[in-house]
Amino acid sequence: MSDSQLWDDVDAYFTAQLSPADDALEAALRESDAAGLPPVNVTATQGKLLQLLAQIQGARTILEIGTLGGYSTIWLARALPADGRLVTLEYSARHAEVATRSIARAGLDALVDVRVGPALESLPKLADDNPSPFDLVFIDADKGNNPHYLEWALRLTSTGSLIVVDNVVRGGRVADAGDTGDDVRGSRAAIEMIGSHPRLSGTAIQTVGSKGYDGFALARVLQ
Q1: Residue 140, exposed/middle/buried by CB under 10 A (0-12, 13-18, 19+)?
Q2: pLDDT: is 3 or 156 the higher one?
Q3: Average pLDDT over residues 54-63
């Protein structure tokens, strides 16, 4: 048995035991697939991890950078109280339309604010709204802009907030100094910023599974 097949089998076992899909989550995946969205959404176990992190954090406000078809948004929004708020930023209007339908189907549209446009344009507008600090920020968009998204996450959070940056391992390429791809440079810059910034304490975890070899960074805002 190949490593990738073993990873798939273990992922399938964990998913069935710990994070089984329901109608709303399955419909979100089907709708994304039917609309031709890239199959880069988080896995079910990763979605459950995001939900647990938000619950452990006691999150009342969540910022998501990169909505795609709304699958991760549903997992995160389900962690919120009835008066909570999740703002999710999506570059593509077509992706946002799919996500909006899926979020409404899950009964979460009252909690979720989907904003369309380049995130680096949406974030200053969001800051102009003077929102309460976000308790959790999930960054899962174009990887080259990860350090910029992380900078904005710091502006929009406060002491004790949690920041999650997805897909930072890039199949191991993040450790290859000769790899100058935008995604690798952006991921590396975000990791180095977490490691050196006086307001952040963080770590990074490598993962394997049905999405292959990757990982995520986790950082707590200190002050």
Answers
A1: buried
A2: 156
A3: 98
